[in-house]
Every structure is written in structure tokens, then in C-alpha cells.
Design a protein that fits this description.
- The protein is built from 4 helices and no strands.
- It has about 80 residues and is mainly α.
- The protein has one domain.
- The longest helix is centred in the middle third of the chain and has 16 residues.
- It starts with a helix and ends in a 23-residue tail after the last helix.
Length: about 80
């Protein structure tokens, strides 16, 4: 459930992204809430939120060279030739 929400928060689908972000920003602490799911999985909700925000920001900047530093390779046409 948490993994699906993380993936949906970075989706190209506006509906999926909005739903995932709404769920992750919820302050409800019962049922299948984001906070409760994070607790069960021993994850800090704020850390998960920051991770998603950072990944989403990187997706909005697709051609910046520092993406490689975060483990996301550049598209082939943007890679530098081997020395």
C-alpha cells in the first residue's frame, strides 16, 4: 500500500498523483491511514513525504546532470562521451 502510494505520487496520471498526495498528507491516525501504515512498517511519515517530494522535484527537471547523483541515469542523448 505504501509502495503503491509512493509510485502513484510520481505518476504521470494527475488523478493517481493527487489521490496519493492527499492520502500521504492526511493527519488521520486510524484504519489504513498513511501515518498508521508508516508506523506498522517502522517508517517515519515525514521522511517518506520528503523522499516523495524530492523524487517528484527531480522528475520535473528531467535533463539536469545532477540527476545521476541521485541514482537516475541521464537519457542516452544527454550522456557525455566516455573519455
Amino acid at each position: 500500500m505504501l509502495l503503491q502510494a509512493v509510485q502513484d505520487s510520481m505518476s504521470n496520471s494527475t488523478g493517481k498523483r493527487a489521490s496519493a498526495v492527499r492520502w500521504m498528507n492526511s493527519t488521520i491516525d486510524s484504519g489504513f491511514s498513511f501515518i498508521l501504515v508508516c508506523r506498522v512498517l517502522a517508517r517515519d511519515p515525514e521522511q517518506v513525504r520528503r523522499f516523495c517530494q524530492k523524487k517528484a522535484a527531480l522528475r520535473r527537471m528531467p535533463d539536469l546532470p545532477f540527476r545521476a547523483a541521485f541514482g537516475e541515469p541521464l537519457p542516452a542523448w544527454r550522456q557525455f562521451p566516455a573519455a
